[in-house]
User: What shape does this take?
Amino acid sequence: MNATAAPAGQRAAPSWRRIGRYLPILCLLAPLLAFMAIFYGAPMVLLAEESLRNSPTDEVKRPEPTAYHYARTFESARTFRALTRTFRLSAIATVIALVVCFPIALLLIRAGPRLRTGLLLVIFVSLAASLLVRNYGWLVVLADQGPVNRLLIAIGVFAQPERLVYSEGAIVVALVHYMMPFVILPIYGALLRIPPSFGEASQSLGGSSWTTFVRIVWPLALPGVFGGTILAFAIGTSAFVTPLMLGAPQTAMISQVAAEQFLVQQNFPWGSAIVVVLTVATLIIVALYGAVLRKVFRVAV
Amino acid sequence: MSRSDDPSYRMAVGVLGWFGMAFLVFPVLLTIVVSFGGSVFIEFPPQSFSLKWYANIAEVQQIGRAVLISLGVALATAAIATVMAIPAALAITRHDFPGRGTLVAFLVSPVTVPMVAIGIAVSQFFVWIGGGTGWFALLVGHTVLVSAYPVRTLVASLSLSNPSLEEAAASLGATRWVAFRTVVLPQLMPGLVSGFLFAFLISFDNYPISIFLVKGGLTTMPIEIFNYISQNLDPTPAAFSTIYVLIVSAVIVLAERRFGIVSLSVKG
Assistant: This one.
């Protein structure tokens, strides 16, 4: 009861008791934890180790561990461009996704129960529908004979069908679409937690709906905005199938370059270094973003 | 808030919100329309009507075989991930222990790590330890990827449930197993169903991990569909997409009716 009063001789006893206490918890965790440690933790560590080795394809053998493949990632024009393109397109798509999704979350919160469930089901289906299916949909929409081209010709913007697919623009559009459910749901969740009385109080004090939005709804939705945009950004930086389907070789994103090192060039150390750079850079940006948001907006995220 | 909204605000939310929803469904709806077109190229609006692309799915043999393989992999993956997630979620929600936050962060981290990184790491791991290619590697890679989802949904539904019900069952003389089956399991159901469902769907649809792990004639649905799209221009993938979306919609609606998975995911 009074831990400080315990005699020195009994110090060892609590640690045994503690093991006894945590043993059942450990047993519950054991299967998943062991699986993830062996097949996820260990492979990731091995990947990082691999990135410091010489590749059989290197002409010069350097003393290991070597940072050569990291230097190469930033020095190779193609790899570095793919890296900056990845972060640029992800940031653009995340901002667009936020702008498109916030009104959807507001619409959900104002809808009656039946409409709300209906809209949520549509959002869930698009979350669950295959990414290949959705990207293929954009191939159709943006096709040379597709509806967007037809429309732009009809209203006189284009004289003849233009190539819209296989470009950065097409990648951004498809990324926004991929991100949407992941942005809508956290914002909707945050809006659900705002007590209706807050809005009523604002209105009874003479605030317009716009004032209420700026002063109450938006600040209280920020944790959801943060959660959604973080997920969206991570989806963007790890995009692989989307740029593969809607982009061209000259719009390659970093995951494609890494995959190419493994599947085509067989340069495992360089591929590993690229993957490590991507993963670490994503984690750093996410952490910085969280820190800035906490400081500037004073949000508990 | 909505009772006395300014008309301009109501207009803005309505127009922008519905525009966003239209953007979300547009490519899928268009794919459905295109799948009934008669032309050998993608054409909108379709000039003629045909069901031949649906018949063509059955003609393309790799797709049928790949769908069966993907079904098997996704079912096994979802089952393994969910079974391992149940005790872990119980430990996380019902017990306090040092390092719990770190543990949860580790277990859900595969969601934010680039999928290509997971695929490469797992395939390299099997090269390193020797063997383990094919089915086993595919199952392992997919389980790593999806295991975070059942953990999350189970933690969400356990956090909403009431542990004192278990104590009540125990004090009424129920054994641990009986208490688990009759009290805990029913409370777990929504989390179990949505966790299994998402694990299944994410595994079934995975391309970036599978591409590094399929070897020796093993193939999956996304890989075959991807190959078909890059080699052919006809609307067969549109027909396939239509069937896929219809099945997924039916499953999601059923799961919502029975288990309320939509509301659980929003709260969780």
In short: Chain A has one domain: 79-297. Chain A touches chain B through 92 residues (CB under 8 Å). Chain A has a mean pLDDT of 88. Residues 138 and 182 of chain A are 19 Å apart (CA to CA).
